[in-house]
Write a structure and sequence with these properties.
The chain is of the alpha/beta class. Helices cover 30% and strands 26% of the residues. It has two domains: 253 residues, FAD/NAD(P)-binding domain, CATH 3.50.50.100; 142 residues, 3-Layer(bba) Sandwich (FAD/NAD(P)-binding domain). A six-stranded mixed sheet has the order 5-2-1-9-21-20. A five-stranded parallel sheet has the order 11-18-12-13-14. Strands 6-7-8 form a three-stranded antiparallel sheet, with no helix packed on it. The structure holds flavin-adenine dinucleotide. Flavin-adenine dinucleotide binds next to helix 1, strand 2, helix 5 and helix 7.
């Protein structure tokens, strides 16, 4: 019997989780798996928020060779250019096209800073490792100036169109704790302005309440429903006509799909239109787990739960067995504030809306420890060619929550 050719595009959470779940679900003789990524390493993005405050970057990277070679997964280091779904071929910047029977597009989202005039030129951005290292240098200057008696104003902005504003909240709260430990907080005014109608709106009212409390307790001015319209060198303009002067502006850039596909169904930002099982509308043989798809909440935990459902759907098509795992959307993440962690667990509808009164928010130092345990656990699993999630359930973080609640 010929093996089915499964081609996975990307090298992030959704791609690796799909690949490792599939190797666990399908007899190796029936599967020829290829992973195509434009980078030779996996990056654990949730760990990036520690970089401005001196955390090491190296543990966040996992070489794909180490992860994939354990299973004889064919690895292609190439940039995907387009997909011909009629002929079932992937074209890359390398000469040889890649043929598939089942295609998984897990190329994620990409920052589009030019969506806000002046953001690319004047704001410190929160996206890539390099940007977060540079942000750390800018924070050092703020602390230096504050230490020499020069009052500073640091403005955090979340414009419309950002996919997950969590890192901006984390960095603002971490920055506050970091300044306090340097005894210069009194010289630094911090403002947080978001286009969202509530803080952390995507994850429900509980998160808004706890973030509003944190801002009030820490003396951070928080503004909701305030879309930024332009960022200049020393001031930022907002939709309501107001203007704020700043010494440093820190911004999450708006995001769009990393790869735009002609002829595939997608929304106006290029995110692929999926059915609940993350297969593409009108294409039973193409799937889009993670940030590449149109699920409106974009987080690593959702990317891996979608990937597990995609692997189950592809395995069912190969083996003829029924699908045993679907995508049950639950957002789960921990925000780090340096002095503690804030756990958010929000069951979502198929449309990505929080199920009212089902969201849970817990905070305390143990949650920070859980976040760092996870930051070790997930890269370690991928380094060993293993999926982050078990075949069913939500694994380590949920187990930790049950334990700590007791
Ligand atoms: C600073 C920051 C902090 C975050 N913190 C958290 C957090 O605390 N908790 C949380 O849940 N989420 C967090 N997120 C969001 C989370 O990282 C994403 O939701 C997650 O990475 C999505 O996984 P993915 O596999 O879909 O996409 P990605 O992780 O972005 O992976 C996409 C992959 O595709 C590859 N690729 C892209 N284009 C091409 C191409 N043309 N050809 C070949 N390969 C290509 C990329 O190199 C990459 O390997 C954070 C994001 C950022 C930026």
């Amino acid at each position: 019997m010929l093996a089915d050719r499964v081609v996975v595009l990307g090298g992030g959470f959704a791609a690796l989780e799909t690949a490792f779940q599939l190797t666990a679900m399908v007899d190796p003789n029936r599967l020829h798996l290829t992973v195509v990524s434009d980078r030779d390493h996996f990056l654990y993005r949730p760990g990036l928020v520690g970089l401005p405050f001196g955390a090491a970057e190296a543990p966040l990277h996992v070489p794909l060779s180490m992860a994939l070679d354990r299973w004889n997964i064919t690895r292609r280091l190439a940039c995907v250019e387009n997909v011909d779904t009629e002929r079932r071929i992937v074209h890359t910047n390398r000469v040889m096209p890649i043929h598939y029977d089942h295609l998984v597009i897990a190329t994620g989202a990409q920052a589009h800073p030019h969506g806000v005039p002046g953001l690319a030129e004047h704001a410190a951005q929160i996206s890539s490792p390099g940007q977060l290292h540079r942000l750390g240098e800018r924070f050092q200057w703020v602390a230096h100036n504050a230490g020499h008696g020069r009052p500073q104003h640091v403005l955090f902005v979340v414009p419309p169109g950002t996919v997950w504003p969590g890192p901006a909240y984390e960095i603002a709260l971490m920055f506050d704790t970091w300044l306090r430990r340097r005894t210069v907080r009194h010289q630094v005014r911090i403002t947080f302005a978001t286009a969202e109608r509530a803080f952390g709106e995507q994850l429900g009212a509980g998160l808004h309440r706890i973030l509003a409390d944190e801002f009030a307790t820490r003396g951070i001015t928080g503004e909701t429903d305030l879309p930024v319209t332009e960022i200049a060198e020393v001031h930022t303009c907002f939709d309501d006509g107001s203007k704020l002067h700043h010494d440093l502006v820190v911004a999450l850039p708006p995001h769009a799909a990393a790869l735009w596909h002609d002829g595939l169904p997608a929304d106006d930002r290029g995110f692929l239109t999926c059915r609940p099982d993350r297969s593409l509308v009108g294409r039973d043989d193409v799937f889009a787990p993670g940030d590449a798809g149109d699920f409106p909440v974009k987080q690593s935990f959702l990317a891996v739960t979608q990937a597990r459902a995609v692997a189950a759907a592809v395995a069912a098509r190969i083996t003829g067995r029924p699908v045993d795992t679907g995508f049950e959307p639950t957002a789960l993440c921990v925000l780090d504030t340096v002095d503690k962690g804030i756990l958010v667990e929000a069951p979502l509808t198929a449309e990505g809306l929080v199920r009212v009164d089902h969201d849970r928010v817990l905070s305390g130092p143990a949650w920070r420890a859980a976040k760092y345990a996870l930051a070790r656990y997930v890269p370690m699993r991928y380094r060993h060619g293993k999926p982050a999630l078990p075949r069913a359930g939500h694994g380590l973080l949920t187990a930790a929550r049950h334990f700590l609640e007791r």
